[in-house]
Design a protein that fits this description.
alpha+beta, Immunoglobulin-like, Purple Acid Phosphatase, chain A, domain 2, 7-stranded mixed beta sheet, 6-stranded mixed beta sheet, about 20% helix, globular, disordered C terminus
Length: about 450
């Protein structure tokens, strides 16, 4: 009986992929990488020949239009992911959008902002990972999973959003064939509640194993080139790797912060290898040089796997001790201030702290998972992780946000975790000056409502 129910649910979930009548706009528009004078909008269309997106300056009425043809851009049958780029925009403006697809007109209610320009301003960004979406008929397999969290996340103020991996979740059979991987991307982008969340702010993303390929997948994955090609087609990141090394890694800045988003899968080898690596030599060199060149107050390092967790038996950079030690020593020797790690993967959130001799402590903000099933960390040896800042474990569905605030020279990084109803669970503040010395941050207790 269970087999029949499973087969029926799978059939229903796949049939949804191809529903929708004659509507040509399937998903989006989703705003991607955005600066003070540039932005891009991503959409997914079906059965279309030509599409245009127009940004309308709500102050001056000036119109900026980009037109794309779908020919040669299909990823599966008649599905086309399209990225519309807009350069040389005036600063500090608000825009409305119009979309036309083969003479079908779509008015978009949402408004779009370019990036802030005053380095003294406060700004905020969402930090999320592990967005498992399950067809309704299969929810009994993962009790507690729900998409209603997104409506609570949307009401939080933010300037952009970071995905730290496991947004997609290939099923075991998806990653065995390139067609299955492609179908899964389309299916995910048609999920209404998460799509609404993603259309709310500019989105940036790296991957972890569940959108790279198989569970715990690494450099020997046979379809990794195809996987990277799909990843590029479904996000609006500022870049993907460099000329020497393909991958999903990139960097960008926002006011006085810089973000170094790393690829922990494309070059990853087994920890037991003779020379194990998480990033690969070329990406590691790029990362270290980028850190060295950065003048940012806060330098956020985004990576799918946890970094500073010395207790876990699950995937973690700590199992690649030589490479991680090289990074930490580089930060110390080059006197690179303001480094904070951002990670996902674990289906629980926490703040980890590593004291570094003759340097400042390193922090790792883990935000996971927004809809995935809970890890029940409190039942494991990690419950009393000595590296965790007291009171910051949230082993249930949750999402994170970071705020940068305060005066120049005295900027503060406020980290927050919210539960799946949007209620604040914990918060923690770190002053920029604490990431130059051996002083430590002070946890700010949450007041009871």
């Amino acid at each position: 009986m269970k087999t029949l129910l499973l087969a029926f649910a799978l059939l229903v979930s796949q049939s949804v992929l191809f529903a929708g009548g004659n509507k040509k706009l399937i998903s989006g528009p989703m705003q991607g990488h955005t600066t003070a004078t540039y932005t891009n909008l991503w959409i997914l269309v079906k059965d279309a020949g030509i599409a245009s997106v127009t940004l309308i300056d709500t102050t001056s009425g000036e119109r900026y239009t980009t037109i794309l043809k779908t020919e040669g851009q299909a990823v599966y049958k008649d599905y086309y992911p399209l990225l519309f780029e807009f350069n040389d925009l005036p600063t500090n403006r608000v825009y409305k959008a119009e979309i036309t697809i083969d003479n079908e007109h779509y008015d978009i209610e949402r408004i779009y902002h370019t990036a802030k320009t005053d380095v003294n301003e406060s700004y905020q960004f969402m930090v999320t990972s592990c967005a498992l979406s399950v067809p309704f008929g299969l929810r009994w397999l993962h009790p507690g999973i729900e998409d209603n969290v997104y409506k609570h996340a949307i009401v939080k103020e933010a300037d952009f959003s970071l995905w730290l991996g496991d947004y997609l979740y290939f099923r075991s059979w998806d990653s065995k064939k390139e067609k299955g991987m492609t179908r899964r991307w389309i299916w995910k982008r048609k999920r209404k509640k998460i799509a609404t969340y993603m259309e709310n702010w500019p989105q940036y993303s790296i991957w972890d194993d569940h959108e790279f390929g198989p569970n715990d997948g690494m450099s020997n994955f046979e379809h990794k080139k195809h996987s990277l090609g799909l990843f590029q087609k479904f996000w609006g990141n500022p870049g993907y790797g460099n000329d020497e090394a393909p991958g999903c890694f990139f960097k960008f800045d926002y006011l006085d912060s810089e973000f170094f988003m790393l690829d922990d899968r494309y070059y990853r080898t087994m920890p037991e290898d003779s020379v194990p690596t998480m990033l690969g030599a070329t990406q590691l060199a790029w990362f270290k040089q980028s850190l060295k060149e950065s003048k940012a107050v806060f330098k956020f390092v985004g990576i799918g796997s946890q970094t500073l967790n010395q207790v876990t038996t699950h995937e973690c950079y700590w199992h690649y001790k030589d490479e991680l030690a090289d990074i930490i020593n580089f930060i110390k020797q080059e006197n690179i201030s303001g480094v904070i790690f951002l990670t996902g993967d674990r289906h629980h959130s926490e703040l980890l702290k590593l004291d570094v001799e003759n340097s400042y402590p390193l922090y790792e903000f883990t935000s996971s998972g927004i809809t995935s099933f809970r890890r029940r960390t409190r039942r494991t040896a990690e419950n009393n992780n000595p590296g965790r800042v007291e009171g910051t474990l949230a082993d249930y569905q949750n999402f994170g946000r970071i705020t940068i605030e305060g005066e120049t020279g005295n900027r503060v990084c406020l980290m927050e975790i919210f539960d799946n109803r949007g209620k604040l669970v914990w918060e923690y503040r770190i002053n920029q000056n604490e990431l130059k010395s051996l002083s430590t941050g002070k946890r700010i207790p949450v007041k009871e409502e």
